[in-house]
Design a protein that fits this description.
Layout: H1 7-29, H2 39-58, E1 64-66, E2 76-78, H3 80-107, H4 112-130, H5 134-152, H6 159-190, H7 195-201, H8 206-224, H9 233-239, H10 242-267, H11 272-294, H12 300-321, H13 327-353, H14 369-372, H15 374-388, H16 394-411, H17 417-443, H18 456-474, H19 476-488, H20 491-494
Antiparallel strand pairs: 1-2
Length: 497
């Protein structure tokens, strides 16, 4: 009897299949598109992302699973949690492509492999949020990461780019080994890698199960850039092409948190008393390291790298709170959505300021930007205020919901007030290095130059990021209600929460 795959399986995986298939299509079209038509790759890739976005949005409210082995638990699940995260990944990819059109042409990096690798990495991110088995989490992690290793070195033979790719690859391979070891220990403690079966056996797994949780957290902590597993972030962010850094700073981070929330809430809620303090401790260390070290940076990409580390700490506050309250998951999802537009918008300005690879990236290069280009200076100032957490911005709304979730978790039994205090103090500290950019733009003289803002694709991307950051700042409740629905009909519902 021939093996048949029911159509429902293909429906569940259709957004991922569209992205993977489109990446392969771009690979084949390289042989047919003339050398002088390289700009076609961007628009063709954008068509694929739009198709996947429409298909994903149409599946809102759908629940199901596929690839069910003998244990009866599907390896891939689709719920509102996965659908919401897939929309974030696809939006990140769309903004990246819009910003890449002008940037890659100006810097001489307009190569079709960029778009192939981008699509393949997005497919891995999408699988991270849909994974219902630790083995699939690992496979998705590698599908996400390997293209990023290559993209980091896209600016070869520039030494800094090659160095960033090598560092990212070596440390990423090391962290993957740690993650696999965590899977092995978890399997030894529970007899399964399926998240529902890990749920039933992890509490009785003893020290072996707790060790497995620790190694899994280390592997995912590397991917989200949490301290002390952050050592790759500043060098890779600085050396990689800025468009790759922008994509990585959002996509890879959200992908790591997608898996972290799924694993902790679906497989390990019974031992939340163990992992909540561990996550809270990592959050505190990440907040302190990211914000304090960012004070000393003179290169804006390195500053945003440590800023990215700090924002991972804020999201980890919500992860810790999710052990006691559903508001933690909602707050984490809201923050990741707001961070997407704020950070991509900030990097759009950075790319417009970058004259060529590695030039125009010092903070001093922003001196006098308000006089030369007042609109772009205003946009950059607004993004800096959002990253700081000043109202009315999406960044402020995100931090408000995260701190509220931590306070709610404290009422339910987890003492996270101390973590809220650290979060507030480090937010104040972050104001120094964010507002330093504003000060240089408005209060000093200079000849700041913009080279890439006049392109229609770049203007569109900047407008989208500004509008969403404004909307999330002025009317956050509307969108937070959506994240509540995600929780009620998503990861918490499948976990029995």
């Amino acid at each position: 009897m021939a093996f048949q795959i029911p159509s429902i399986y293909l429906v569940i995986l259709s957004p991922v299949l569209i992205i993977m298939g489109w990446g392969m299509l771009i690979m084949l079209l390289e042989f047919f598109i003339p050398e002088g038509r390289k700009g076609w790759y961007a628009w063709l890739s954008l068509v694929g992302i739009v198709l996947a976005f429409v298909q994903t949005a149409a599946m809102w409210g759908y629940e199901g699973g596929t690839f069910t082995p003998v244990n009866g638990h599907p390896m891939v699940v689709l719920d509102n949690y996965a659908t919401f995260l897939n929309l974030i990944f696809l939006a990140t990819g769309a903004l990246t492509i819009l910003l890449s059109v002008n940037y890659l042409e100006r810097t001489g990096l307009n190569r079709p492999e960029f778009y192939m690798l981008l699509l393949f990495s997005i497919s891995g991110m999408m699988l991270m949020g849909m994974a219902n088995d630790l083995i699939l989490v690992f496979l998705a992690l590698e599908i996400l990461s390997i293209p990023l290793y290559i993209m980091s070195g896209l600016a070869w033979p520039r030494t800094e780019s090659e160095e960033s790719a090598m560092k990212y690859f070596l440390l990423g391979a090391f962290s993957s080994g740690i993650f696999v070891f965590g899977i092995a220990l978890t399997y030894g403690a529970t007899g399964s890698t399926a998240l529902p079966e890990v749920l039933t056996g992890i509490a009785s797994g003893g020290s072996l199960g707790f060790a497995g949780v620790a190694f899994l957290l280390v592997g995912l902590g590397f991917k989200v850039g949490a301290a002390p597993f952050h050592m790759w972030t500043p060098d890779v962010y600085e050396g990689a092409p800025t468009i790759v850094t922008a994509f990585m700073s959002v996509g890879a981070k959200v992908g790591g948190f997608a898996a972290m929330l799924r694993v902790l809430l679906m497989a390990m809620p019974e031992i939340s008393g163990t992992w909540v303090p561990a996550v809270a401790g990592l959050a505190a260390l990440t907040l302190i390291v990211g914000n304090v070290v960012a004070l000393m940076q003179t290169n804006i990409k390195r500053m945003l790298a440590y800023s990215s580390i700090a924002h991972a700490g804020y999201i980890m506050i919500a992860v810790a709170a999710s052990g006691e309250t559903q508001q933690g998951v909602s707050a984490a999802l809201f923050y990741m959505f707001a961070y997407l537009f704020t950070n991509m918008g900030a990097f759009a300005v950075v790319m417009a300021m970058e004259r060529k690879q590695g030039e125009g990236l010092l903070l001093d290069d922003y001196k006098g930007l308000a006089k030369q280009h007042p609109v772009m200076a205003l946009v950059m100032a607004y993004f800096m205020l959002s990253l700081t957490g000043v109202p009315p911005t999406g960044g402020f709304s995100g931090k408000f919901y995260i701190f509220r979730a931590a306070i709610e978790a404290t009422k339910n039994g987890s003492d996270l007030i101390w973590l809220v205090i650290i979060g507030v103090i480090t937010s104040v500290i972050s104001g120094y290095y964010y507002l330093r950019v504003v000060y240089l733009m408005y209060m000093t003289d200079g000849k700041a130059e913009l080279t890439g803002i006049r392109h229609p694709a770049v203007v569109t991307a900047v407008l989208v990021t500004v509008i969403f950051t404004l909307f999330l700042g002025f009317a956050p409740g509307t969108f937070f209600d959506v994240t509540r629905e995600v929780v009620l009909n998503g990861v918490m519902a499948l976990a029995g929460g």
